């Protein structure tokens, strides 16, 4: 059964890019171009930059949170073997190249659309992929290549710390990376002076401040929801570990200071302004918001910061997050306990893999279309293939087709590495619709594992679940399959494609509205006129997904065999 919140349907039939939320700058209404230009010149704007898995995005908004201009830069992780084992990383130089390119493109859009030069901004916020490992010495030099959240080499650290704390420390958390380095007695630890995330690193270089938004900080080390600092019990336990005895630093010495949304996090320095905008047009002294992780900006972008609200953020990875009324009853390795930008605890089911394999298949179909003389825009290709997944003749259980979308390791199913794999039984019904539905069902299957634990085993209550990301821009396709996977209503707002960079810009804007709670600010000022579409789960689709999911779990040994037998670097 479908229930419309309003008559307005999200997206269009030709929209739908799965790899990243779209932040294309809309053509400005000429009637308000002068007003926008005035806001820009007066600095009544906020800038959000988010370092996503595939795209660095910059979004400039006005005081009404309307997008004025955007910029982006495509990048991709790679395997780095500097440490002796292949680890997922991004080049340090590309961090700054991407930031400058995205900002320059945004500034050029401002000049093109509004006829003014961007020199003043009211507030700036930096966001990025959470977790990972960025370690620096006292001179500010990076000690190892950036180790991203995709790495699963930290399983021993995850198990030991989770047992020590009786609190889940996922493999991708920064403290798991740190402890694994301690267990491996890595030489660089003798020189470590600072450990942070990607957002914290960029913010530090722009402001000189070693701080971090509490949501991002909660993916480094457990947070105390009362003090809004790191949990001192766990800090003491970590500092007492045998591996720490010969270190002349403690955990508190090297971690950034957590800040909640609305707290002043420093100013853009002259050096920072030159780093962000080498053209020299941008002024220094701009207020900076606490740098946040992509989970926190996803919560903001979907208005999901109140207790019993939740969101599903889908991109290269996917996570389903619910703001908790109370702690979980027991340690659940499948659930991350993180914090909202305001410091409330939230439960997260996080899957490392989502659109990478799907994008590869769509690219393949695109090459076929081009070879057949039917080249089409990528957005149209996504929409065409997505619509096949919900056609009338599709099998709701995917007709016996299975797909394993694991480009990298996946903790939720016990994989240290991944090998994308498509498999079918001899009598499976191999159709385009079934194949595309298998792609989408498999992409949602890992995150369903953790979500089922929260809602079925832990009794976590969810009043609303909002999905966002480019994959939801094609109306109702991914939304209906997610509703079937979770067996719950899924809402997609008309802001679904704005993404985390816009959410970070909103958090920057919140610096001037911190006299009210973040939840009230979002309700009253940001989402007061937002509409969208809610889809209730279809009982037949739910049953079909459950049949697919059972086969997916039963066939995981096939994926594990692929990891064991197919070389990581096979070509």
Automatic annotation (TrEMBL):
Residues 47-274 form the Carbohydrate kinase FGGY N-terminal domain. It holds the Pfam family FGGY_C. Residues 311-508 form the Carbohydrate kinase FGGY C-terminal domain. PANTHER family: SUGAR KINASE, XYLULOSE KINASE. One of its GO terms (biological process) is D-xylose metabolic process. Its EC number is 2.7.1.17. The lineage of its organism: Bacteria, Bacillati, Actinomycetota, Actinomycetes, Bifidobacteriales. One of its GO terms (molecular function) is D-xylulokinase activity. InterPro entries: ATPase_NBD (IPR043129), FGGY_C (IPR018485), FGGY_Carb_Kinase (IPR050406), FGGY_N (IPR018484). This is ATPase. Keywords: Carbohydrate metabolism, Kinase, Transferase, Xylose metabolism. Belongs to the FGGY kinase family. It comes from the Bacteria. Residues 19-34 have a biased composition (Basic and acidic residues). It comes from Bifidobacterium gallicum DSM 20093 = LMG 11596. Residues 1-34 are annotated as: Disordered.
């Amino acid at each position: 059964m479908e229930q419309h919140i309003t008559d307005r349907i999200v997206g269009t039939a030709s929209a739908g890019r799965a790899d990243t939320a779209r932040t294309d700058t809309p053509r400005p209404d000429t009637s308000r171009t002068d007003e926008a230009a005035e806001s820009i010149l007066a600095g009544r704007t906020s800038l959000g930059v988010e370092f996503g898995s595939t795209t660095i995005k910059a979004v400039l908004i006005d005081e009404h949170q309307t997008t004025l201009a955007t910029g982006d830069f495509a990048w991709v992780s790679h395997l780095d073997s500097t440490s002796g084992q292949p680890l997922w990383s991004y080049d340090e130089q590309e961090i700054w190249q991407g930031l400058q390119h995205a900002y320059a493109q945004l500034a050029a859009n401002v000049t093109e659309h509004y006829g003014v030069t961007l020199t003043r901004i009211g507030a700036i916020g930096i966001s990025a992929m959470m977790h990972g490992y960025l370690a620096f010495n006292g001179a500010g030099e990076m000690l190892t290549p950036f180790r991203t959240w995709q790495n699963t080499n930290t399983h021993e650290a995850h198990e030991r710390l989770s047992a020590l704390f009786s609190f889940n420390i996922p493999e991708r958390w920064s403290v798991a990376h740190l402890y694994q380095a301690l267990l491996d007695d890595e030489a660089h630890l003798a020189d470590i002076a600072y450990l942070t995330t990607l957002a914290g690193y960029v913010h530090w270089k722009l402001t000189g401040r070693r701080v971090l938004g509490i949501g991002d900080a909660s993916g480094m080390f457990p947070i105390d929801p009362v003090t809004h600092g790191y949990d001192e019990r766990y800090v003491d336990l970590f500092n007492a570990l045998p591996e720490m005895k010969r270190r002349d630093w403690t955990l508190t010495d090297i971690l950034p200071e957590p800040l909640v949304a609305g707290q002043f996090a420093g100013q853009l320095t002259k050096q920072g302004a030159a780093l962000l905008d080498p053209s020299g047009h941008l002024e220094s002294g701009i207020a900076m918001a606490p740098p946040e992780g992509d989970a926190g900006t996803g919560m903001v972008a979907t208005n999901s910061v109140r207790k019993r609200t939740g969101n599903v953020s889908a991109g290269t990875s996917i996570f389903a997050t619910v703001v908790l009324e109370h702690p979980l009853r027991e340690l659940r390795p499948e659930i991350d306990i993180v914090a909202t930008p305001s410091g409330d605890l939230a439960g997260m089911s996080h899957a490392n893999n989502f659109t990478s394999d799907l994008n590869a298949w769509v690219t393949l179909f695109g090459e076929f279309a081009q070879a057949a003389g039917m080249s089409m825009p990528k957005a149209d290709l996504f929409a065409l293939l997505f619509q096949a997944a919900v056609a009338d003749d599709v099998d709701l259980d995917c007709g016996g087709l299975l797909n394993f979308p694991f480009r990298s390791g996946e903790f939720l199913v016990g994989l240290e590495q991944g090998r994308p794999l498509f498999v079918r039984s001899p009598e499976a019904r191999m159709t385009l619709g079934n194949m595309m539905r298998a792609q989408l069902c498999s992409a949602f299957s890992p995150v369903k594992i953790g979500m089922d634990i929260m809602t079925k085993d832990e009794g976590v209550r969810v009043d609303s679940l909002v999905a966002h990301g480019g994959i939801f821009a094609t109306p109702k396709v991914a939304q209906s399959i997610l509703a079937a996977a979770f067996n719950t209503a899924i809402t997609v707002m008309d802001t679904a494609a704005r993404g985390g960079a816009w959410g970070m810009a909103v958090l920057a804007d919140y610096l001037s509205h911190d006299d009210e709670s973040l939840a009230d600010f979002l309700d009253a000022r940001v989402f007061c006129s937002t509409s969208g579409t809610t889809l209730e789960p279809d009982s037949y689709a739910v049953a079909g997904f459950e049949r697919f999911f059972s086969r997916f779990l039963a066939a995981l040994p096939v994926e594990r065999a692929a990891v064991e037998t197919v070389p990581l670097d096979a070509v």
